[in-house]
Amino acid sequence: MARKINRIGVFTSGGDAPGMNACIRAVVRTALYNDLKVTGILQGYQGMISNQFIDMNSRSVSNIIQLGGTILKTARCADFRTPEGRKLAYENIKAEGIDALVGIGGDGTFTGIEVFSREFDIPVIGIPGTIDNDLYGSDFTLGFDTACNTVIEAIDKIRDTAASHDRLFFVEVMGRDSGCIALNSGIAGGAEAILMPETGTAIDDLIGQLEKAADGKKTSTIVIIAEGEMNGGAYNVAKRVKSKFDFYDTKVTILGHLQRGGAPSSFDRVLASRLGFAAVNLLLAGKSRRVVGLRGNKISDINIEESINNKAFKLADDMIELSNVLAI
Amino acid sequence: MARKINRIGVFTSGGDAPGMNACIRAVVRTALYNDLKVTGILQGYQGMISNQFIDMNSRSVSNIIQLGGTILKTARCADFRTPEGRKLAYENIKAEGIDALVGIGGDGTFTGIEVFSREFDIPVIGIPGTIDNDLYGSDFTLGFDTACNTVIEAIDKIRDTAASHDRLFFVEVMGRDSGCIALNSGIAGGAEAILMPETGTAIDDLIGQLEKAADGKKTSTIVIIAEGEMNGGAYNVAKRVKSKFDFYDTKVTILGHLQRGGAPSSFDRVLASRLGFAAVNLLLAGKSRRVVGLRGNKISDINIEESINNKAFKLADDMIELSNVLAI
Amino acid sequence: MARKINRIGVFTSGGDAPGMNACIRAVVRTALYNDLKVTGILQGYQGMISNQFIDMNSRSVSNIIQLGGTILKTARCADFRTPEGRKLAYENIKAEGIDALVGIGGDGTFTGIEVFSREFDIPVIGIPGTIDNDLYGSDFTLGFDTACNTVIEAIDKIRDTAASHDRLFFVEVMGRDSGCIALNSGIAGGAEAILMPETGTAIDDLIGQLEKAADGKKTSTIVIIAEGEMNGGAYNVAKRVKSKFDFYDTKVTILGHLQRGGAPSSFDRVLASRLGFAAVNLLLAGKSRRVVGLRGNKISDINIEESINNKAFKLADDMIELSNVLAI
Amino acid sequence: MARKINRIGVFTSGGDAPGMNACIRAVVRTALYNDLKVTGILQGYQGMISNQFIDMNSRSVSNIIQLGGTILKTARCADFRTPEGRKLAYENIKAEGIDALVGIGGDGTFTGIEVFSREFDIPVIGIPGTIDNDLYGSDFTLGFDTACNTVIEAIDKIRDTAASHDRLFFVEVMGRDSGCIALNSGIAGGAEAILMPETGTAIDDLIGQLEKAADGKKTSTIVIIAEGEMNGGAYNVAKRVKSKFDFYDTKVTILGHLQRGGAPSSFDRVLASRLGFAAVNLLLAGKSRRVVGLRGNKISDINIEESINNKAFKLADDMIELSNVLAI
């Protein structure tokens, strides 16, 4: 039988992502609507250890749905990796009256609540929030759609100037070990080549592609480079290409952390609202150790171990294939 | 056995939608990649009748992936509804050498190619392109995501000024008979109330909601009104609310056709690329009378009759429910 | 000799405008830098009467430079127009320790502080903040540049769809009695016609212009209509044009209050920072009853009576002329 | 007495800038309005030498006002620096019937037409078009305003994530030898420090500023670095700061050429329209060897030698001062 929950603790952890605030809002308001109380835990796991708690009401989350970042902040926390740290965290949240947790973040976040719930028998739900879109159990993670929009706005601007000259542009995008942002934004931006960890393009192959594009009389060429691909990032690729292929003037853009910010897209805000709503409803239904996600056009949930233990393979086959076909 | 196709005709029809150009580009380049020829048909069915054809090569679709509207233009065409009109259209496209059609648009577009392919035995594929998201067979139609982003950018701006005053804003959005844009942008915009054809909110109920919001000390209230809802649009709703509820200063925004334009979002460009790629591959595989669409995270296809004959019910139950819960 | 000022009161009044927060930030930080204290007065003159004061430090204005609206809110205040109301306001701000005022707003705001400073001998500085750009003494008022950018983004989107069809779009923009937003955004948006209070275009003349454009084979026509022009707004103009000129399908967009919101442009943020900085420096220099403004590329200041008593003529002659020449 | 001009040649040269297309449109339409013919010269001076001419009519410049880049493209041209190259260029444009030139670009562009007009007695007008805002004779150059908006949108996004963590962000912006983009976008973005060529901040001084900001409990710090400043760009500054100051996690963004693209702002489009209109009117009035510009809120013109020979000092004193005051 499900235990009665009185107070939910909500936190964000890991790299921040657009849509986290919309998700916090959904968790808080869904909980309040169901007569639960809500504590916001600041700085993720660090806040559990150092007692950074704030009581949240409906107005605490007014006018935040459109904000990038996270009002609860995030931080790394070495202490939570130790049994002593987790014990202290548990005592603190118990003293605060928190009897269930909703954690928004990536695989590190999920690993944390998984261990925590095993050790202290507290209900936990994970919500996938990372721009990298590298989690198993959801077609899309919070922030990924916004990050792709941010990248293509940059590519569109670069293409304006690319069309005016004969230039070769290298744009480095985020994604850690995942090429998901690179592949999606590369297709959406009409890039001539996309370098990803998953496909592992060698420099010589890239040069071959660029030569083909030059023959086709393209006036400009844009190459998207995932930060995790094997050639060491945009600067290194640019340097190596330039040494073999000096027809073009090469230019580098490193988008960096601006990809983590910005007002979330409609897609991310709707997804955030649905996931936060679903997470609280799962807790109310007596569930624990679940990760909510979007599958197809429906919200569903899987075991947290299943999410943690499966490596994500997000790159759809048709997309890898068409990225080559459409670049002609 | 599949007939050999030599030349594809591609056209856009109905209301234009962001992503149509990205989709045209994908159709053209996928066809060229497979050694097919491509004719662009201007002005939709009207162009078939009045012989508005352009031969398309890879450069014809350079630098259009980011453009709103459609380079092939659209038009209404009464003549195509007559057997004589269609016969003329068929003779024209045959003379042009077109032996398969890809039509991008809404249900009117699909109805047209369905009849046409029955009468003249020409292979046809439909691609769902409309901001209204009201077609059966695809979780998302081309342009819907961009339109929602456009609406929430407007709502975000209105909320800035709303937060500075005690005001009641009515924002009318598109969607014809569908509340899909209203529901998604209303949730994403954090609207206090959403009036949709599907839910049919009476003015008295709306006033009840607004009074509850006023009690909760919200400093601003934004109401999203789908153009197809039963009270006759934002101006009429505003007038009737104002007469019963004069606490607030009421303001109306009619977004109108700006919702049909704008650079397509990353989501719409990727979707457009995948759908265009899939449509040509279906033709190459000898298929006809199919509508391609996104289901889950996969591209699939259904019979065109199935798409035409099913009324779309796109509003997910959890979304209607959460739109009330989160507005508290 | 200048009196020693210890505490500045800052407020926003009238319609809000993008850049007001950036200006509040500049006033607060410049004052603090010079060892003055600062009180934020909420709701403009109303806050003086009802004692809505908040003490402001450097962190009070952190992370607001990019926000539309005003964190100090604005309100209308009938009481301040009475001598009794102003007396109460003065007693309240005196009790708060405020010995100088910076008011950000339009002519109503300036009229208020002008009377107030005469009656109670308190130093006052006015900062022009309104999207309408209708104040004498500054080439640009805070928020005008952002509002023009908002309007042209809307026009650009409408033009996407306009280029796909043969349509006539009417876009109504703000500006009260001023055509400044209409003229600037009309030129910047490439509108085919601009209806403004200053130029007074009759419907028959407009129809003449539209016929000329139709002859020139323009595929789309966009008409910008200032809310204060003589024909009664976009809906009325559209109706009257339609009845005489049915070649086009006519569509109306009412942008409304979204023009008052949005993240301020770089221009508005820099202007806001310079004006706020200058206002405090004037008070420190013992000045009062001045309005600061941008003239050329320099910040200057004029007597507040001069600003109030002069009607603004902001529409540069070359711009009115070129708006006709470039629409061909 | 002024010679009769029949055909104007218009070209863009040097780095492209948002607003160039709006300016080309204004030149073309103003010329046509006055019954002049217009030739578009592709690739700048290179196009004169290699005969890349296109006849332009009103429709040639339809729907380009909102586009970044330049439809006439730009290129570097070593040949034009030789007397033989210029002679060939002159013979070509003479053969084309061009009897006056409007060149849009930076100081290199102006130097080219200045020499050309002396050698071949052809009327020339220069229009300042560069994002760097480093030309004498105009308060603002075409593209500068848009570039600043592009930069602050990036900074706003970075600040979202900055507010969630304790991080130190370095953002490198363009401007060649000018700190104008850095100063304006740094003020508008609320940056904690701005490194510019003009002010020459040593690393130790920067570290002092950052330590002060850290004491003031700022949760994030953003440093804007002009590409031309003395410490060698964002990567080098980040490395040197990191080695002495490891409290923060440091992150680098290199915006690169996306600053040259994007739809021009309203300000840039209006400025482009006024300058193009004025340039043609000067030619019609028999003037030559002038550079048009915005001074105050008025379009004026100066001798081209005056523009070339004066080093621009665009950084207003109050802005440098307030950038320090407001960063507290």
Description:
Chains A, B, C, D: Catalyzes the phosphorylation of D-fructose 6-phosphate to fructose 1,6-bisphosphate by ATP, the first committing step of glycolysis. Chains A, B, C, D: Mg(2+) binds at residue 107. Chains A, B, C, D: Belongs to the phosphofructokinase type A (PFKA) family. ATP-dependent PFK group I subfamily. Prokaryotic clade 'B1' sub-subfamily. Chains A, B, C, D: ADP binds at residues 25-29, 159, 190-192, 218-220. Chains A, B, C, D: It comes from Albibacterium profundi. 4 copies of one chain form a homotetramer. The model of chain A has no long low-confidence stretch (mean pLDDT 93). Chain A contains 11 helices and 11 strands. In chain A, the strands form 2 sheets. The first copy, chain A, has a 7-stranded mixed beta sheet with strand order 3-2-1-4-5-10-11, sandwiched between helices. The first copy, chain A, has a 4-stranded parallel beta sheet with strand order 7-8-6-9, sandwiched between helices. The first copy, chain A, folds into 2 domains: 7-143 and 264-309, Rossmann fold; 144-260, Phosphofructokinase domain (Rossmann fold, 3-Layer(aba) Sandwich), CATH 3.40.50. The termini of chain A are far apart. Chain A is of the alpha/beta class and 328 residues long. Chain A has helices at residues 20-33, 45-49, 83-95, 107-120, 144-162, 180-189, 203-215, 234-244, 266-284, 304-309, 317-325, and strands spanning 7-12, 37-41, 53-56, 100-105, 124-128, 167-173, 193-195, 220-226, 249-254, 290-295, 298-303. Chain A is elongated. At the A-B interface, helix 1, helix 5, helix 6, helix 9 and helix 11 of A face helix 1, helix 5, helix 6, helix 9 and helix 11 of B.
